[in-house]
Every structure is written in structure tokens, then in C-alpha cells.
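Hi support team,

I submitted a single chain yesterday and got back a structure, but I'm not sure I'm reading the C-alpha cell output correctly. Could someone confirm the output below corresponds to the sequence I sent? I've pasted both exactly as they appear in my results page.

Thanks,
R.
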Amino acid sequence: MAHSDYIIVGGGIMGAMMALELSESGSGSVILLEKSFPGAGSTGKSGAILRQHYSHKVTIGMARESLRWYSEFEQRYGTDIAFHRPGMAFICTAADRANLQRNVELQCSMGVETSILDATQLRDLEPSGQFADDECAAWEPEAGNVHPVRTVHAVIEAASRAGAEIRIGTRVTGFVREGERVLGVTLDDGSTLQSQM
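Hi R., thanks for writing in. Yes, this is the structure output for that exact sequence:
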């Protein structure tokens, strides 16, 4: 039976990021298991939009840190993940403007660069768009995006360089348990992998 301090099941962006953070922090040995290929699930289908337009302080804070981290990825790791910063307009009707205003005020209080645009300003921002007179938007010029598949591959490669063991094409078929506690996983070749934590 093989052992590792951390066993991560799934090679999407969440698993890849956990593998990278744990490996870079020196928290212990890390194995990431992916049954198919990196980004095969929801990550590969994502628009990979990096925005800060949320209505809760914790989420806004996480989004700000995430946006900063992805914007610096190429400089830090030397891999282009196609980061772009086109901005984002979160559009709604006048009936929802009060809620939009509250969100924008909260975001501004946390350092997000954002403002409300009316329909005329939206048309100036995007002349090819068709906006109703009662529409408005929260405009966030800092918002960006990355290429989702390129990014997950880059993060997994960085995790591997940091010491994580990456096993692609390895399917988890069950869990090794001791009562309610999960101790490890069973793999499709019949072997088991147990956590040392």
C-alpha cells in the first residue's frame, strides 16, 4: 500500500490549485489523481471569467486575490495562460438598480474599481451592443479571463515542479475507511493509496 500526506482526487482547477499550494508550502507529500485528463470536467467548459462583482465580503476578497494571482501567473511561473483584462459589465434593468448599487458600494469599499453605467454610457462603452433604455450595468474594468484548459495544465505542471506527484489516467473506485474516517482511496488497478495525515 502506497502512502502520501495528501491525496487529491480530480485534476480540474480546484484539485490542481490544491496540489500547487500544498506542494509550494511544504505541507507534505502530495499525489493528485485524475481519471481522464486535466480539465476534462467543468474546468474545461468554463468561461474562466475573473470578476469581483459579488455581494458578500468574503467572496469579493477571494475574487480580488484570485484575480491578482492569475494576472501574475506568467511572471511567476513563466507560462502563458492567456490572461486578458477586457473588463466586464454586469447588466440589469432599472428595477434591480438598487441592489446593483448596494453591491457596487460594497465592492468599492473593498478596493474594487467599479461604477454604475446607464444605458447611454453602455452604448458609448460598446457601440455595437443593443441596450434598452431601462438597462444599467456595473462596469468593472479590472475583470479578466484566462484560457481554462491551458491554465489547468500550467497549474498542474507548476505543482509537479514543486514536488507533487501527478497521476493522469488513474481512476479512484472507492475509499478506504475506518469507521466514519476516510483513510485513503482504492484505485482501478486494485491497489490502495493511504493518507499519512
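A quick pointer for reading it: The first helix runs from residue 13 to 24. Let us know if anything else looks off.

Best,
Support desk
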